[in-house]
Amino acid sequence: MNALLLALCGFNAHGALRAPVRPSAVSMGPIRAIKRLIGIQKQNFLEANPYWDQSNIPLNTFKNKAPFTGKVLSVKRIVGPAATGETCDIVIKHGGKMPFWEGQSYGVIPPGINPKNGKPNSVRLYSIASSRYGDDMTGKTATLCVRRATYVDPETGKEDPAKKGVCSNFLCDSTPGREISMTGPSGKVMLMPEKDPKTDLIMVATGTGIAPYRGFIRRLFVEKTPAAAAYEGQAWLFLGVANSDSLLYDDEWQAAKRSFPSNFRLDYALSREQNNKSGGKMYIQDKVEEYADEIFAKLENGAHMYFCGLKGMMPGITEMLERVAQSKGISWEEKLEELKKNGQWHVEVY
């Protein structure tokens, strides 16, 4: 066996354990420990060649008429007690048979019949919230970030179970081992531009719109990918939620800030805890506007700007950008057309 690999895992040239060694390596044995360290040192088994080439991304591998059956590994509530709703982190095993790229979506077909038309429930799309390697780095799992959709009757103040979101509640109520009918992966709109590693990314999200950006940030700042090794730009995340308890994956963003203070920026818009410059509630467009000059400069220099979340976010965002553009003597209509033509403008709202 290669002496270098043995040494990396804490074994001498004869395969005997030498101290010091990580406890995990002892419990796994020499061969598994070597394989694990190889994966940590060189995580590129799901990469294109070259890694930034998007010509052969996986696309619609599984369709509605012949979906894939995944299996739930875990469901975890990821918001605090004072959050305005329940959001869950759901890890699904696909066994490597449903590969995807960061920024793509999976379709989920909830079981049951739609009472409105008597037909099986239709597919719902969810942005994938992990990198292509999955949170376990095996390339065999994917994570979804799902907010439970409920309806509260304004007159009674009580939830109406007949009007709750069929698929979101199915997913949030799932337990490990539950089978999930899935389609996809789908979408090219939210892919990262990796060919130029100096490209800045401006990522704007409301609520579970954070999902694709978690994949981006893990790929660039958490995992040992070719993209991470090459990246020299700045990734700037804006997240809008109601309050601090509604923040999603905050511990991950804080860790990225500590480790990469020059390459990762983070700004929150907490509508029930912060005020904008006019004294009103701080919405996502207000927070972005605080940095309008810098954002316009970045766009001029080739930055890509992403929007993901509820479609209601976009009117406020575009009105703000149009207003700022006018103050700079820029035609926003022409600027937006230029950004779209250059592939710098990415929108996925629902």
TrEMBL record:
Residues the record lists as binding NADP(+): S127, R147, T208, S271, R272, K281, G309, L310, E348
Keywords, sorted A to Z: FAD, Flavoprotein, NADP, Oxidoreductase, Signal
EC number in record: 1.18.1.2
Residue stretches making up the FAD-binding FR-type domain: 65-192
Domain of life: Eukaryota
UniProt-listed InterPro entries: FAD-bd_FR_type, Flavoprot_Pyr_Nucl_cyt_Rdtase, FNR, FNR_nucleotide-bd, FNR_plant_Cyanobacteria, OxRdtase_FAD/NAD-bd, Riboflavin_synthase-like_b-brl
The reaction(s) this protein catalyses: 2 reduced [2Fe-2S]-[ferredoxin] + NADP(+) + H(+) = 2 oxidized [2Fe-2S]-[ferredoxin] + NADPH
Signal peptide: 1-18
Cofactor(s) recorded in Swiss-Prot or TrEMBL: FAD
Keyword Flavoprotein recorded: yes
Pfam families linked to this entry: NAD_binding_1
Gene Ontology molecular function terms on file: ferredoxin-NADP+ reductase activity
Family recorded in the similarity comment: Belongs to the ferredoxin--NADP reductase type 1 family.
Full protein name: ferredoxin--NADP(+) reductase
Organism, as annotated: Diacronema lutheri (Unicellular marine alga)
